[in-house]
Each structure stands twice: as structure tokens, then as C-alpha cells.
Write a structure and sequence with these properties.
By secondary structure, this protein is an alpha/beta fold. The protein folds into two domains: 8-45 and 144-307, 3-Layer(aba) Sandwich (Rossmann fold); 49-138, 3-Layer(aba) Sandwich (Rossmann fold). Helix content is 46%, strand content 15%. The chain is built from 13 helices and ten strands. The strands form two sheets. A six-stranded mixed sheet has the order 1-2-10-7-8-9, sandwiched between helices. A four-stranded parallel sheet has the order 5-4-3-6, with helices on both faces. Helix 2 runs parallel beside helix 4, helix 2 crosses helix 7 (145-161) and helix 11 (252-266) crosses helix 12. It is globular.
Length: 308
């Protein structure tokens, strides 16, 4: 069965829904490199776009009952932020290894935090069990049309802010952001090249494309803790397979070097996951390339260790 892709109309409607929830983030030029700074979003990452689009479409009954999500950090923070704004009770299931800065950010917004294992599968199982027992609506971190459409609003902004863009580098965990951006950009400017970027130690999309279907990695390891999903989503994989021009990997040394470059040259704080696309773009000498700085939620001590 063919998986339906998110439409340009879906993304344009999402852009209307998230006005006042997400920011239109700036595109900055740093030493000739164009950077779309999603680290300046409320909550410090792009995830608020998808969370805002999904929660804004819940029924009054669903809002009253509450929501639950499973997240390594940034999606959980985004759901907590939007839920707080809408007065929706929220639960976030996080890995036991989540950096303290991300746990604190979720709790600061009034969400209940639970912990489950170290993998997305561990978190998903617990979230599904709690959702069933408490009649909560699950807000998936990436594999849902409403989430993908929300993330795709970044693509609309890029084409408005930099119409001459020729390539866009997008970091990938489960694939929600690259799915949304490619769905927006390819429908408006098919000649713009979309490059998905994932850690070498968590190359689940690379393996899935080679197999022709989503596959699950046995394990993952990377400095980029937000990109360690073991399996891409079914919907996000369909988007990548149909719309993304290429997928590349970056290693931890390149990610740390990109964090250091962003800080030294642009005075920009990016978490490892947020710097992954920049790491790949720094290899590219082509003009008019854009890299997404997807998040800036990083513990000060860990950040100092990366840029030293």
C-alpha cells in the first residue's frame, strides 16, 4: 500500500495554525554560510512547529483528557510548551539518559515526566500503555501527518527568506523535519536539492533506503543524542524515499567541529543534534546552500567540552 504524502496545502494550513506558537526564525549569514536558526524557537528547537500543529487540532474532549508523548528531549519540551499554553495536561516519557537540561525544561512547563529505558521503542511502549490506561492522546515525535506538516513550515519560510537557495541540509532522527521540509520545498521549487544528514553511528535512514523499507538498527551511538532513533517512521521514510535527493552521514568529530565553528564564527549555541546538518554543509563548497540549526538545548558543561 502506498503511503500518502503530506500536501503543500497541509503545510500552508499548519503555518496558519502555529502563528503565535512558533517563531519565524532568522536566516543568518555566517562567513558565507546560510543558517536557518531553529535554535531560536520557544523551547530551543524546531519541534514546536509540529507539536503546535497537532495540539491545535485536538477536540475539546481530547484537550481535557490530556496528551502524552515520548521524546529524548526537544519534542517533549515542545509538547509541554504548547500544552501549557492551551491548558492541556501533558505527560512526557523520556529516556533514562536524557541530559538534565532537557528534563528540567519539560518539568518547568508543568508536564509530568516519566522515564523508560534508553531507546525510542522503550519510550513508545510505556507511552502507549499509559495512554491506554489514562485515555490520553499520543503526540508522536515524528511519524504523523500533522507533525510532518508542522515541521514543513520551515521550508515555506526558507523559500520566502532566501528564494535563491539551491540546497538545504536537514538533520534527521526519525525524519519528521526532513519529510516536512522536502514536502514543502519540492512542491514549490523542485530544483532545490534536499540533503538529509544523520550521525554515522545512527544511520537508520541510510540502511532503510538501501533495504527499500524501514529497518531497525541493533544499536546507535553518537554525540548527537537527539538523533539516535533506531528506526525511521513509515510515513517519514516514504517522504525521504520520494522527495529527498540524498542522505549523508557525519561523525562525532565533524559534529563537534561544527558546534565549535558555529560558536566561534557566529556566536551561535547549537546542541550536537542541532549542528549535524552544519557539519555536512561545511563539506560543501557550493554557493547558496542552507543548513538547518535545529536546536540549541545543551548543558553548559557538555557544550564547553565539545567546543574546547
Amino acid at each position: 500500500m502506498t503511503t500518502a504524502l503530506v500536501s503543500l496545502d497541509d503545510i500552508r494550513l499548519a503555518a496558519v495554525r502555529i502563528r503565535g506558537i512558533a517563531r519565524k526564525t532568522p536566516v543568518l549569514d555566517v562567513r558565507g554560510r546560510s543558517l536557518k536558526c531553529e535554535n531560536f524557537q520557544p523551547g530551543g528547537a524546531f519541534k514546536i512547529r509540529g507539536a503546535g500543529n497537532m495540539l491545535s487540532q485536538l477536540t475539546p474532549q481530547e484537550r481535557a483528557a490530556g496528551v502524552i508523548t515520548y521524546s529524548s528531549g526537544n519534542h517533549g519540551t515542545a509538547v509541554a510548551l504548547v500544552a501549557e499554553a492551551f491548558g492541556i495536561p501533558a505527560v512526557v516519557v523520556m529516556p533514562e539518559t536524557t541530559p538534565r537540561v532537557k528534563v528540567d525544561a519539560v518539568r518547568a512547563r508543568g508536564a509530568e515526566v516519566m522515564f523508560a529505558g534508553t531507546t525510542s521503542a522503550d519510550r513508545k511502549v510505556r507511552a502507549e500503555n499509559v495512554a491506554a490506561s489514562r485515555a490520553l492522546t499520543i503526540v508522536p515525535p515524528f511519524d504523523h501527518p500533522w507533525i510532518i506538516a508542522g515541521q514543513g513550515t520551515t521550508g515555506l519560510e526558507i523559500l520566502e527568506q532566501q528564494p535563491q537557495v539551491r540546497s538545504i541540509y536537514v538533520p534527521m532522527g526519525g525524519g519528521g523535519q526532513v519529510a516536512g521540509i522536502s514536502a514543502a520545498v519540492k512542491r514549490m521549487r523542485d530544483n532545490v536539492r534536499i540533503v538529509g544528514v544523520e550521525p554515522a553511528g545512527a544511520a537508520r535512514m541510510t540502511a532503510s533506503l538501501a533495504a527499500g523499507h524501514p529497518v531497525t538498527l541493533a544499536s546507535s551511538a553518537s554525540l548527537a543524542d537527539g538523533l539516535l532513533t533506531l528506526r525511521p517512521g513509515d510515513i517519514t521514510f516514504a517522504h525521504v524515499q520520494s522527495l529527498v535527493d540524498s542522505v549523508v552521514t557525519v561523525d562525532d568529530l565533524e559534529i563537534a567541529a561544527a558546534m565549535r565553528w558555529l560558536f566561534q564564527e557566529g556566536k551561535i549555541v547549537a546542541e550536537p543534534s542541532g549542528a549535524a546538518a552544519v557539519a555536512a554543509a561545511l563539506r560543501d563548497d557550493a554557493t547558496q546552500a542552507m543548513a538547518i540549526v535545529s536546536g540549541g538545548n545543551v548543558d553548559a558543561e557538555a557544550f564547553a567540552g565539545c567546543i574546547h
